[in-house]
Amino acid sequence: MKVNERDEVTATVGDSVAAVLESYRVFLVDERGLAAESVRCYLLDARVFLTQLPDPLGVALAGLSAGQVTGFVLGYCRGRNTWSAKATVTGLRSLLRFLHVAGLVPVPLVQGSGHGARQAGSLDRLTWLFVAMGRLLLVLGAPKLMSW
C-alpha cells in the first residue's frame, strides 16, 4: 500500500490491525468521549498508519521509532493541504498516546505534561517529535501547521 492512498484503505486488514483499531475506537468513545465524526476521522488516520507497518504488527509496534513516524507523516502529508496534514498529525498523536497507554508501544512517549514541564525546558519525546515534524512540513510548504 502506498502511504498517500488513504481513501483506498479497506476493511481487509489483518486481524491484529482490526483488533487495535477496535480497542482504539472503544478508548476514543468511552475514555475520551469524542463525537462520532471525530472517532471516524481518527480511525481513518490510525488505519492508514497501522497498515503501512510491517507484519507482525505487535513486533512492529514494539520497535516503533521516531524515524518511522516522521517518515510516514512526510510521505503521507506531501501534497495535502494544511488542514488535512494538521488533522493527520493530530490523529497520529492521539493514536501514539493510546498505543503507549495500551502497552503496545513500550517506549514512554510522554514523560512530562502540562505547561510547567514545557516552561522548565523538558520536552517529552512525543512533543519533540511533533515539533520536528512541524518544521519538516514547513519546509515542504505547509507553513500554517506551525500555528498549533
Commentary on this structure:
The chain contains 7 helices and no strands. By secondary structure, the chain is mainly α. The radius of gyration is 15 Å and the shape is globular. The two termini are 30 Å apart. The N terminus and C terminus are likely disordered.
Q: Topology of this protein?
A:
Blueprint: H1 15-31, H2 36-51, H3 57-62, H4 66-77, H5 82-101, H6 114-119, H7 125-139
Q: Helical proportion?
A: 55-70%
Rounded average pLDDT:
75
How many strands, what sense, and barrel or not for the largest sheet? none
The number of distinct β-strands equals: 0
Question: Measured on Cα atoms, how large is the radius of gyration?
Answer: 15 Å
Counting DSSP H or I runs of 4 or more residues, the number of helices is 7
What are the key terms here?
single chain; disordered C terminus; 148 residues; 7 helices; 62% helix; globular; mainly alpha
